[in-house]
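Give me structure tokens for this 211-residue protein.
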Amino acid sequence: MGRREDSGVDEDNVKTAEWMGRREDSGVDEDNVKTAEWMGRREDSGVDEDNVKTAEWMGRREDSGVDEDNVKTVEWKGRREDSGVDEDNVKTAEWKGRREDSGVDEDNVKTVEWKGRREDSGVDEDNVKTVEWKGRREDSGVDEDNVKTAEWMGRREDIGMERDDEKSQEAAAMLNYGLEGFRTSEENFTDIYSTSNNYIELATVTDHLVL
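Here you go.
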């Protein structure tokens, strides 16, 4: 615990005392011995396991191999320029910060990116696409259920079937013929489905009308 410059190989708590002070060159030690060095200054070392490497990652780390579990997570919360492909909550940590190029991720991972900025992506499912649609969306494919509803409430420039006078008249004519499972009069149709702009909300009659 004082000053020690040169020694042989000691055991147990003897070598530990050196590591808590100053140490420039040593061999390979085990267990909590190497941990003590890593909490201080460490420039070059081999590959260690478990909580040992974790201690280095909490400080400064420029180049390392591939580690597992919560080890890589610590690096990602700080600065990360180049890495391989990680899984689960690891990639999520990077996405909450800055992300320029990545592969395809699943589930709640992609959701995090979509809440920020997104220029180009593949096709995602369920509530993931919904998040983008509440913002700005210029080009997309065909989505289902409440996803498309979210887009329609915002801005939409190009779709397949538009709601206009012609479609309203066509729907009214078909309804007057008395489609199976749906009965209405001309008067009731006007009251229920017409709007001030003479548009028809096609989604409201989906269960009864097939165009």
